[in-house]
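Researcher: Here's a chain I'd like modeled. Treat it as a single chain, no partners, no ligands.
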Amino acid sequence: MISFESDYNNGVHPEVLQHLIDTNQELTSGYGFDQFSEAARKKIIQACECPDAEVFFLVGGTQTNMVVIDAMLQLYEGVLAANTAHINVHESGAVEMTGHKVLTLPEHHGKIHAEDLRNWLITFHHDENKDHCVFPGLVYITFPTEYGTLYTAKELTDIYAICQEYEMSLFIDGARLGYGLMAPDNDITLPFLAHHCDAFYIGGTKVGALCGEAVVFTHNNTPKHFFTTVKQHGALLAKGRLVGVQFDALFTDHLYLRISQDVMQKAMQLKNLFKKYQIPFFLDSPTNQQFVILTKEQKEKLSKDVIFGKWCDYDEDHEVCRFVTSWMTTDDDLLQLERLLQVL
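Model: Modeled as a single isolated chain. Structure tokens:
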């Protein structure tokens, strides 16, 4: 069997693993107050070109979204997001568990449009009964989105301008951030991203780490007592070095971007294979998640030799399936897939 199921079902990238091994015998303090976490923070801040930033390390994406969103909102506020957003669909109500409602906006291939955001806010603030409602306090977007699509620099600028106009924060989920940054047509850099939002996180779990996400508050705007909030949510690692060491490796010699670039090269090879064998796409994804339309017969036949995910039904006879490249994807994996597509 070959797998295109996900970018987080493998172990840890060899260079990250080696750094974990090399530092294993070194004595450190706990809870992220260790020399490796501090080194990683400095490297991330430098890479973001954002000297006022503060960096915190958490374990996984759902945990990060829940903790950050809860910390950034007042008790009476909710978070605006696309109706396909991860926090609204595939996080088991984690945000709602904190007492904050997810307020949904129309999605356009996973993205929200600035015009829809503005119209929602105009409608809300003109409602004479708004004091009886959940107030919007935060906008959440993902880069790349759940459909592998990307915001342009202009789209991000427009959304952030509206957030500032309405005195709301913008939080960007970067679970697959590296793949967005290294996508062929992307026009957003890490420093640009850092200067066009109030908080974001750099995903490690899906970009070569064993686990871990690096939360960046960008403008000296860390929520009060955020460290305590993290612990209150059960999200504080005693052995905080586990994540810190990994990000120290990922942000040494551009490893994070090198991993992402390698994965994206494989993703474009994968995309070209589907084009070559006339497998239709559900949408045009420029990143490492590719969504194709298979007949049920094709899906059943391919599933005998390939692990991949069903995304949704397309019609009575077809299903949308997701194929994902990761740091473990090899040229041989792609060659085996091509052989199978030839006879599909």
